[in-house]
Every structure is written in C-alpha cells, then in structure tokens.
Amino acid sequence: MRFASLGSGSQGNALIVDAGETRVLLDCGFSSREAAARLARLGMAPDELTAIVVTHEHGDHVGGVFAFARRHRLTVYLTHGTHAAAPRGSAPLPECRLIEGHTPFAIGSLQVQPFPVPHDAREPVQFAFSDGVRRLGVLTDTGTITPHIVDTLRVCDGLVLECNHDHALLAASRYPASLRRRIGGRFGHLENEQAAALLRQIDTGRLQHVLAAHLSQENNRPELAARALASALGCSEDWIGVADQDGGFDWRQLR
Ligand SMILES: [Zn+2]
Ligand SMILES: [Zn+2]
User: Fold this and answer.
1) What's the gap in Å between 253 CA and the centre of ligand 1?
2) How close is the Cα of 219 to the center of ligand 1, in Å?
3) How close is the Cα of 156 to the center of ligand 2, in Å?
4) How far away, in angstroms, is 10 Cα from ligand 2 center?
5) Counting ligands in written order, which one lies closest to the CA of residue 120?
6) How far is the CA of 203 from the centre of ligand 1 (A)?
7) In 3D, which of 78, 66, 7 has the Cα closest to residue 42?
8) 82-114: pLDDT as tens digits
C-alpha cells in the first residue's frame, strides 16, 4: 500500500491511497483539471481511480468532488450529513453511497474505517485505510483529540496528521478574534502541540511515515510542525514529512 497528497491546506486537499488494484481519492478540493494535473504529477490518471471518499462538506475538501466524480464516473462515499450539506450546484449528482460514521466498509481490496471528529461541519469524519496488512490513519479538520480518535489511530503504519496552526502564531495573527476563536476552538483545527499530544498517546512502534498536513500558510511554519511531532516521537525533524498546499507530498510506501 502507498499514499500521496495532491495538495494540503485551506486552499484545497486531496490524498490518494493506492492498494494495487484499488485506488481511492480522499477528498478533492481542486477543480477537475487541477486534480488531474496533480494526479499526473504522481504518475496517475483519473481513470485509474476506483472511488472518492469524502470527509466533510467544507470547500477545501468537497469543492471539486462532484464534478470530478461525474466526469470520471466515480462513486462518492460520504456521510448522510455531508451529503445533505455539500454544495451541489445544478448538475446531476454522481453516484453516491451513504456511509455511517462508525461503520467500516470496503472499496475493492481496501478496508475503510470512518471515525467521527469534532469539527464545525454537519457530520464530519476522518478515515483509516487498510489493505489487510498495513494501516494508514488520516486525521485533519478536528478541533480536539477525542478518546475515540486515539483508539482508532492507536496502531498505524502511516499517519497523516493535521498541524493546522502554532498556538502563538495564531494568537498573534491578524485574523479577527472571532476567526481565531473558531480555528483554535473545540470544533476548529488542530494545533501543533495537540497533534504531538496524539502521538504521545498511541503506539508508535509500527509507524513508517508521519506527515504533518493541513498547515495554515498564515499561522504555522513547516519547521514548527515538524519540531513538535519529532519531539513527541523522539526522532529527527527530518524524518517528519510536511505536506504543502502546492506540492502535497510524493508517494510514501507502507511495506
Ligand atoms: Zn480543511
Ligand atoms: Zn473543515
């Protein structure tokens, strides 16, 4: 199993999980053309994808999902709440499968385990993916770390973890107070130290890759996110990958 990011941050997110014959796109916050160009950069074409899985209805995650799914005839998996709240425009919806936030499901050879997260959306979830051997956890867009999140991500081989902001940079930012409160609140986004705290609560012995994701371009810096996660893991900062808005990150293999 391998995974890569097409881009990550408040301007758009998409991640691809490749289990050989099954290839799932997680969110698509980019236009169809942009998503295809970013896939091409990873050596993949849209018609090689099996399905799209969606976390929640915010534009940086769902913005390009329906158009891309229609164009490439992909089934979209999403919760009832995300389905109800997602902006859909006037074009007919692609085929959608409604999922429950606590019920694992299969797409081809991939086992997909959704888990609810506290975030200011209708019914947001995040996901862990497994090919039966390796397990990848993805956690972005959560305001706090719940015991259920810790349980779900307790044993993973790879982890993509939101490091949205640095507490001090957010406090000093030019954002209005209400926006700062929303981002830093219990239904907002994870701060570097909260992400590090998750790593201190899980079994990290099997982790082959840890990537910081969904970094704010205003209120964080890659080196701060890497430092926080490295200190929790007791590893070198170089070992931590950092996803960026334009480049995402290249393929990571789970062996
Ligand atoms: Zn987001
Ligand atoms: Zn969001």
Assistant:
1) 24
2) 14
3) 23
4) 8
5) 2
6) 26
7) 7
8) 999 999 888 889 999 999 999 999 999 999 999
Task: State the pTM of this model.
Answer: 0.98
Q: How far is the CA of 141 from the centre of ligand 1 (A)?
A: 5
- Determine contact, residues 127/113, Cβ cutoff 8 Å: yes
DSSP labels, 152-199: HTSB-SEEEEE--B-HHHHHTSSS-HHHHHHHHSTTS--BHHHHHHHH
Structure tokens at 239: 């070992």
Structure-block tokens of residue 11: 């301007």
Tell whether the model's pLDDT for residue 29 goes beyond 90: yes
Distance 87 CA to ligand 2 centre (A): 14
Which pLDDT belongs to residue 90?
A: 87
Nearest to 1 by CA among 136, 113, 94: 136
CA distance readout (Å), 229 to 15, 43, 170: 20, 29, 18
